[in-house]
Amino acid sequence: MALIVHKYGGTSMGSTERIRNVAKRVAKWARAGHQMVVVPSAMSGETNRLLGLAKELSPAQQTPAMLRELDMIACTGEQVSVGLLSLALQAEGMDAISYNGWQVPVKTDSSYTKARIQSIDDARVRADLAAGKVVVITGFQGIDEDHNVTTLGRGGSDTSAVAIAAALKAAECLIYTDVDGVYTTDPRVVPEARRLHTVSFEEMLEMASLGSKVLQIRSVEFAGKYRVPLRVLSSFTPWDINIDEEAKSGTLITFEEDEKMEQAVVSGIAFNRDEAKVTVMGVPDKPGIAYQILGDVAEANIDVDVIIQNVSHDGKTDFSFTVHRNDFQRTMDLLKNKVAPATGAATVLGDPKICKVSIVGIGMRSHVGVASKMFRTLSEEGINIQMITTSEIKTSVVIDEKYMELAVRALHKAFDLDADNSPVAENMS
Amino acid sequence: MALIVHKYGGTSMGSTERIRNVAKRVAKWARAGHQMVVVPSAMSGETNRLLGLAKELSPAQQTPAMLRELDMIACTGEQVSVGLLSLALQAEGMDAISYNGWQVPVKTDSSYTKARIQSIDDARVRADLAAGKVVVITGFQGIDEDHNVTTLGRGGSDTSAVAIAAALKAAECLIYTDVDGVYTTDPRVVPEARRLHTVSFEEMLEMASLGSKVLQIRSVEFAGKYRVPLRVLSSFTPWDINIDEEAKSGTLITFEEDEKMEQAVVSGIAFNRDEAKVTVMGVPDKPGIAYQILGDVAEANIDVDVIIQNVSHDGKTDFSFTVHRNDFQRTMDLLKNKVAPATGAATVLGDPKICKVSIVGIGMRSHVGVASKMFRTLSEEGINIQMITTSEIKTSVVIDEKYMELAVRALHKAFDLDADNSPVAENMS
């Protein structure tokens, strides 16, 4: 007997048959006495189809006016989904009603294609829930103060669901997806990878941003900020699975430090092979140099991940960072033709064939020697470390991409993540 | 230098290539100095695709809650169209902006799937036009007072365009469609059919409802009520056709009686072979009998077209009407099992193999003998007339469907519509 938010991804909504299964699952929860709010994504492939049409007409799409139209077009996929899911729920005998973001309303800023949620009015939804209705709300969409339609960016439906759960003070937000939870690492790389029963939201933040792409990173931030209990679970279990069993499945993202005290030092191994590294060699070590280099990069709309600058020699330093591999050539051109001449840098080096491997764990905070164990493990496998960055709960290294699988498997084993009877994880089924 | 509304049908919006042509045509009008508002339909096939998905999930679709969801789903096709057309206009260098019905807003009642427009706020659109923008507004859509999305029913985009033109006091509303105007009759039946340069809106009403399905009937009513000059023209002329030539093409629907005084007595021949006739024989001729029969029919959601009741004999009368052929069997069952027992009718007869042929012309008002000429023409062709109804500007007969083409051709010739050099019409090109 609680207020529960369910979020279903595009695959779960991929056909009328699947939508019918979503409706049956939601109806099961409603019949168990819960107040239900459902946030479905667009049917899989739909957003890409719509943006493909847009791209044919407007290959550039840079001005705010163009981005406004992209949002107008893209958000229709979610609108179709809420209508179809409401019809399916009604066919199940539920009193269901759908809303667009603007009807709730979910208010955002005006940053088309990547808007941020500012506030959610819960009055209309609460009234419907009190009247016994199942409320189906579009993910991804919002409305700005001038009544323009906005979207939250790709994967924004996760954030919508968490934000709605926060506004309604929901007991739990369940994210149904095509994986059955958060794993210690990618099971395709390490068959021994195990599903975590719980993971702290800080760990989840690091895992998500580092490549375990289960949840949109902003949704986790949102959940952390508003302390929304968030569960990732599979939408491929039969809809009529026992509800108590279902309610405990997947991975729960928690906010309680003390729950985690017994946990392993390292919770998971994340990795990312979509990056490339670039280094500006021999730039004068003076105030403003980092901004001088990265300002131009940011202006060219190139996202930067890892940034490393070590101590200088003879008033010169080397400045390294990683970018998405698709941006590698553009970044190199920019650095060679603009940044190097302007800063007086000696050389620009780059390598697109790298990967980033990270160990993540809230337990690292209080355990010394975790990083050194990581470096020793890699050394024993003969893997050279090119770059190192650390934060409180993760340590990342950049290595040659050909060693990625080897590094991930070795680290997974070294930090005992393969173990059969960990208190917090179980074998993959 | 005028405020002009363009409306483009689904075929004109059927692909990105066609949308690009629409944008070029609109840009041409804008560059000629006109303030432009454009109302596009959904891409052809899109509304049917969406409603097909809905039907898979909800075969019934009768309750207001279900109809609300249908509108939520169906109206997305128009939203995609306005976004795509705006992008295409921007690619042409225009400053274009799109709006959904709810953003204007176009306020309607809450009759989902067949809402009626109640008011249109022109402030936002006027401000955009004053700022030099091309404004692209969804057809078909509205919003009710509780901020629910509504649609105006199939073909409602014509009505949206005319209503928006009325609200903005546009100089002219141009309906671009896949025919190049209104014809004296269907050219597929009578190759000699000619395009009318002008037609009165009363004639257009009769033509539209009788089967010359060029425009949604409600849009013509709206145009008549608010005196919006309405032009039907082809979207298949090259987009770069001379604008003065284009502005005079197609058929103009007029409201000025005196302009029509020189016109032919009969403007066109309409026909419809989708109907079936039913007769309830020998019902008591007493007050309330018509309601007793048709009340049950209306309650079963069966639309009735022609209704005929002649004088009675011996206190009994025969009551005939026509329904859509798809409703024929359902109507017969209803009459036999429910209406006949309740009213004491002797028999129920029906025939689905009929058609309706009508002559339409505002000139009929002041010319006697038009109906008799019609009957004589049919008689000379050996065609038996089964039912007759008349109004001020049309005379309709119901005949055996096998004579339809023969009747239409004979009438087209008899009323001189074939003539080569009529002052108001030209040969089909």
From TrEMBL, chains A, B:
Q: Which residues form the ACT domain?
A: 278-353, 359-429
Gene Ontology MF, one: kinase activity
Membership in a protein family:
Belongs to the aspartokinase family.
Record pathway? Amino-acid biosynthesis; L-threonine biosynthesis; L-threonine from L-aspartate: step 1/5; Amino-acid biosynthesis; L-lysine biosynthesis via DAP pathway; (S)-tetrahydrodipicolinate from L-aspartate: step 1/4; Amino-acid biosynthesis; L-methionine biosynthesis via de novo pathway; L-homoserine from L-aspartate: step 1/3
- Which EC numbers characterise this protein's activity in its record? 2.7.2.4
Q: Does the keyword Nucleotide-binding apply?
A: yes
Q: Which organism is it from?
A: Ideonella azotifigens
Keyword entries, A-Z: Amino-acid biosynthesis, ATP-binding, Kinase, Lysine biosynthesis, Nucleotide-binding, Transferase
**Top EC group:** transferase
ATP-binding found in the keyword field = yes
Q: Where are the transmembrane segments?
A: none
Q: Which PANTHER family match?
A: ASPARTATE KINASE, ASPARTOKINASE
Its protein name is Aspartokinase
What's its catalytic activity? L-aspartate + ATP = 4-phospho-L-aspartate + ADP
